Amino acid sequence: MRIEPSFLFDLDGTLVDSVYQHVLAWQEALDEEGIDLSVWRIHRKIGMSGGLFTNQLLREIGQPITEEKVERLRHLHSAAYDRLHRRIKPLPGAIELLKTLTDSGIKWAIATSGRMETARFNLEALGVDPGAVPVVTRDLVKYAKPDPDLFLAAAERLGVDIRTSMVVGDSIWDMLAAQRCRALGVGLLCGGYGQEELERAGAYRVYEDPKDLLGHLDEVGGRR
């Protein structure tokens, strides 16, 4: 019996070039709260859920973690990202990759730790209609990455077995989530993480960007 492949994509840094806009938006939000933090420390946590992100940052710098502060930072980040989103573009090959999968009859979905209030800008840049394509955002699950809930929900929306799905992401949080739901992790370097980091977190293949993945699609079962 042939196993049908399916692809579950992260969004930021995987399909759209938006990681550093998120970093700058978080830095602006933290500055508003009087929290001085280096950009590199922020970047290392991009890809996990916003709530876990703020909890970890506040814990690291010894700040009290309150629900009010976490929610305030989230809204400040969203407002800052709204001002930066116009610079966001699809990563090389992203639109072509999704079109190739669609034309080949291969199922795919998007699963992002971002909420729809920020993800909508990225989806617009890709030309993806959430009414036509399964898109699972942070708003729809109890926990985001590195928990597997987003990818499990995306697989359920597609009606596929998570164990035969490819999770494509740019961060260690994507790969850890893939490991936890027993999917195969495919890492991309275009979000700023290195190949060894992604492989240590569970990636069984690593490519430069969506264009590179498209050129090697047959290596990860992307053919009919």
Task: Explain what the structure shows.
- Pfam families: Hydrolase.
- The protein has ten helices and six strands; from the N terminus they run βαααααβαβαβαβαβα.
- With 224 residues, the protein is an alpha/beta fold.
- A six-stranded parallel β-sheet has the order 3-2-1-4-5-6, sandwiched between helices.
- The two termini are 14 Å apart.
- The relative contact order is 0.18.
* Class by alpha and beta content: alpha/beta
Shape: globular
Task: List the uncertain runs.
Answer: none
| SS summary, helix count | 10
* Mean model confidence by pLDDT: 88
Query: What series of H and E elements makes up the topology?
Result: EHHHHHEHEHEHEHEH
The CATH class of the largest domain is Alpha Beta
SS elements, strand count: 6
Strand content: 5-15%
Full CATH superfamily name of the largest domain:
HAD superfamily/HAD-like
**Distance between the terminal alpha carbons, to the nearest Å?**
14 Å
> What is the CATH architecture descriptor of the largest domain?
3-Layer(aba) Sandwich
Oligomer: single chain
Protein name: Haloacid dehalogenase
GO molecular function: phosphoglycolate phosphatase activity
Pfam family, one: Hydrolase
Brief descriptors of the model:
224 residues; Rossmann fold; DNA polymerase, domain 1; globular; phosphoglycolate phosphatase activity; HAD_sf
Structure, briefly:
The protein is α/β, with parallel strands linked by helices and 224 residues long. It has ten helices and six strands, in the order βαααααβαβαβαβαβα.
